[in-house]
Specification:
By secondary structure, this protein is an alpha/beta fold. The chain is built from nine helices and seven strands. It folds into two domains: 130 residues, HAD superfamily/HAD-like (Rossmann fold, 3-Layer(aba) Sandwich), CATH 3.40.50; 48 residues, Alpha-Beta Complex (thrh gene product, domain 2). A hairpin with a 5-residue loop joins strand 3 and strand 4.
Length: 199
């Protein structure tokens, strides 16, 4: 029994923080897991910038409302879900992901949660578990699934390495160079063909 595990941002939808950096005019917020492997460090740094600028959940959600899936993402996901089980494993947060899941046809997602004050300030975040992508893939394997994984960033490498087949998708030149053992694709039809071959 197979299950495909996909990253969300950069793979199915544009990077939320990059979109918000552009909307808010704060270029520092463009830093993502493609640049910083330590997610806790990255998130704490982001929260300090939000606090400094007096920005909260409402402003980020206003940006997210304008984000559409990457062209072809929903069709890719629909076709993939007709072939096998698919789960999105993301380090994003429920408060960010829900409007995007609606646009993608409500696929299953496992992600984290923000701690939000009454005034809308984001005061912290709750990670679902340690190394959430790798831990989730190992948990799926422990209940009888063979996993196939795809993502674009440093935080996807654990689930890609632990799966029976793993693919980089729309990744950086540096990650592709550092991990040449993983096929790297830029187009959904290429990724779909590779996953079909691995099923």
């Amino acid at each position: 029994m197979n299950i495909v595990c996909l990253d969300l941002e950069g793979v199915l939808v544009p990077e939320i923080w990059i979109a918000f950096a552009e909307a808010s005019g704060i270029p520092e917020l463009k830093r993502t897991t493609r640049d910083e492997p330590d997610y806790n460090k990255l998130m704490n740094w982001r929260l300090s910038i939000l606090k400094e600028h007096g920005l909260g959940l409402k402003e980020i959600q206003e940006t997210i409302a304008k984000i559409d899936p990457i062209p072809g993402a929903k069709e890719f996901l629909d076709e993939l879900r007709s072939l096998t089980q698919v789960i999105i494993i993301s380090d994003t947060f429920e408060q960010f992901a829900t409007p995007l899941m609606k646009k993608l046809g409500w696929p299953t997602i496992m992600c984290n949660s923000l701690e939000v004050a009454d005034d809308g300030a984001i005061i912290g975040f709750q990670m679902r578990c340690e190394k959430s992508k790798l831990t989730t893939v190992k948990a799926l394997q422990s209940i009888g699934y063979e996993t196939i994984a795809s993502g674009d960033s440093f935080n996807d490498l654990g689930m890609i390495q632990a799966s029976k087949a793993g693919f980089l998708f729309k990744s950086t030149e540096q990650i592709k160079k550092d991990y040449p053992q993983y096929p790297a694709f830029e187009e959904y039809d290429e990724l779909l063909a590779a996953i079909k071959a691995a099923l």
